[in-house]
């Protein structure tokens, strides 16, 4: 059944051959057509599927407000679903990115028996390039607008309204708190699918840590909804297991009443091997310092007319070449950790700025890609800075190298100052959790 109106919002309904059945519900801002193959697979497993365009998106009436509380519309759809003669009265919620947010907003409905959340929104911290991509191509207007991000970067004036810019914690903290409170209160099984290569990695792990009955799988997948994979992709993206297949098999198991909790899996980057363990890092692990090679004291000279560039996540960073506005240090010895790495250093600067630490993986062939990054504000004068990078599980094989890059901004991923800034960096330490669990 296509174009089914439910309180002014339009849904597609897919039914299995045997009824009544549990229903998987996805509420999406991305258009339902892209979910039809998954709906077909779920009906083949005996589940009904309801796909709904969110308010103000695609075929649904009203105005879309990114981050608005989706509880009321979600509960209305679940009330309608469970009242249908083909429903057995139970539902499962599923979604990627903003779909996962909409699912958690509706999890308190009494029909819900489980939630599958993939690379969820909102992020714990916002990178400017990811937020710009969302607001230009995804989060504004009724339809998706592919290509607007690249156009926005090339124009002095944004081609669409962005709202308050640049983003601040007020852009996402209300929604993050809302999601956290509902995850804590929910007593249903949940699947948390994440990717170390995606800005949502920290969000996936945090939400899984709050859930009572979580199964967690962290891989290295890339998708158009999680980061912009370029034609010149330099990342060795693992193809198996497919995250959609993991989600669909988990939903089918929960629908039959099976216990889905066993099955944590963690991809270790560098070696690219899967391990059958919980990807959630220890809360307070012992830290160890990775020995670093490079100049003991170096300067970062930021030129606002030529800010240090941030290439897409999938690009080869070696193309940037030598510059005066980066301190690059190399780690020696075996590089392996699971969790949050921290860069500590003494800084002296004449202006306020944001110090960016980027952890870069270099292969024996010289290809350099971003593993993780983080930022910390610095103020005029002399003092210490500590930068917490996004969590990751990594074990670099022999012949591979890790670099720590320190910059002032990293345009467009991290905001660069609009005036010249000079920063002296000394006494750099790179601290990582003590080995692999």
Automatic annotation (TrEMBL):
SUPFAM superfamilies: alpha/beta-Hydrolases. Residues 271-317 are annotated as: Disordered. Residues 248-424 form the Xaa-Pro dipeptidyl-peptidase C-terminal domain. InterPro entries: AB_hydrolase_fold, CocE/Ser_esterase, Xaa-Pro-like_dom, Xaa-Pro_dipept_C. One of its GO terms (molecular function) is dipeptidyl-peptidase activity. The keyword Hydrolase applies. Residues 285-296 have a biased composition (Low complexity). Transmembrane segments: none annotated. Keywords: Hydrolase. NCBIfam families: CocE_NonD. Gene3D superfamilies: alpha/beta hydrolase. Coiled coil: none annotated. This is CocE/NonD family hydrolase.
């Amino acid at each position: 059944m296509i174009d089914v109106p439910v309180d002014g919002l339009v849904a597609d309904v897919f039914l299995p051959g045997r009824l009544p059945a549990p229903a998987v519900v996805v509420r999406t801002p991305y258009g339902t057509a892209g979910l039809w193959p998954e709906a077909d697979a779920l009906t083949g497993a005996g589940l009904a599927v309801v796909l709904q365009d969110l308010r103000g998106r695609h075929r649904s009436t009203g105005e879309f407000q990114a981050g608005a509380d989706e509880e009321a519309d979600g509960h209305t759809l679940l009330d309608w679903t469970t009242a249908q003669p083909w429903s057995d009265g139970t539902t499962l919620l599923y979604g990627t990115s903003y779909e996962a947010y909409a699912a958690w907003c509706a999890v308190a409905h009494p029909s819900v028996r489980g939630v599958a959340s993939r690379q969820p929104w909102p992020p714990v911290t916002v990178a400017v390039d990811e937020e710009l991509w969302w607001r230009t191509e995804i989060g504004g207007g009724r339809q998706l607008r592919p290509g607007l991000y690249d156009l926005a970067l090339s124009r002095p004036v944004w081609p669409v309204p962005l709202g308050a810019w640049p983003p601040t914690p007020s852009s996402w903290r209300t929604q993050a708190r809302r999601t956290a409170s509902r995850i804590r209160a929910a007593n249903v099984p949940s699947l948390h699918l994440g990717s170390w290569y995606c800005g949502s990695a920290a969000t996936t792990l945090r939400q899984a840590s709050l859930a009572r009955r979580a199964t967690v799988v962290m891989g290295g997948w890339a998708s158009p909804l999680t980061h912009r994979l370029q034609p010149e992709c330099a990342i060795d993206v693992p193809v198996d297991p497919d995250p959609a297949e993991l989600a669909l098999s988990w939903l089918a198991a929960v629908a039959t009443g099976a216990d889905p909790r066993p099955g944590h899996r963690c991809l270790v980057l560098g070696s690219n091997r899967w391990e059958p363990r919980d990807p959630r890092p220890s809360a307070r692990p012992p830290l160890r310092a990775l020995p670093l090679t490079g100049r003991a004291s170096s300067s970062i000279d930021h030129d606002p007319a030529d800010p240090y560039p941030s290439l897409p996540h999938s690009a080869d960073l070696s193309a940037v070449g030598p510059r005066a506005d980066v301190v690059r240090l190399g780690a020696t010895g075996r590089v392996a950790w699971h969790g949050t790495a921290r860069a500590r250093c003494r800084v002296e600067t004449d202006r306020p700025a944001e110090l960016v630490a980027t952890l870069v993986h270099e292969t024996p062939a010289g290809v350099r890609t971003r593993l993780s990054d983080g930022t910390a504000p610095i103020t005029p004068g002399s003092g210490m800075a500590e930068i917490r990078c996004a969590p990751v599980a990594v074990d670099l094989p022999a012949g591979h190298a890790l670099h720590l890059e320190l910059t002032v901004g990293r345009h467009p991923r991290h905001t660069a100052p609009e005036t010249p800034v000079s920063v002296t960096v000394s006494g750099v330490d790179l601290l990582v959790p003590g080995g692999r669990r």
